[in-house]
Amino acid sequence: MIGFIVWAVNSLINLYVFLIVIWCLLSWFPGASQSSLGRFLNQLVHPYLSVFERIIPPLGGVSFAPIVAVLVLWFAQRGVQMLSLLVR
């Protein structure tokens, strides 16, 4: 049972990281964020990224918030994996 929960959490984190990467790539193309996919991803990703955007201001017009957000997700993922080892 614990193995399935860890697998599900890892899969969700991987999916969310993938969505953040796609959201970032869409920002490179003019008008892509106005598409239906862009608006959908913005609704999913922006609330989480806005936490980091308040802490880390853009430098030279480039936001490093997505990088920090992905790192936090990866650390959370490793934490879940370590907890699963302690439970076994």
TrEMBL record:
The chain crosses the membrane at residues 12-31, 55-76. The keyword Transmembrane helix applies. GO terms for cellular component: membrane. InterPro entries: CCB3/YggT. Keywords: Membrane, Transmembrane, Transmembrane helix. Belongs to the YggT family. This is YGGT family protein.
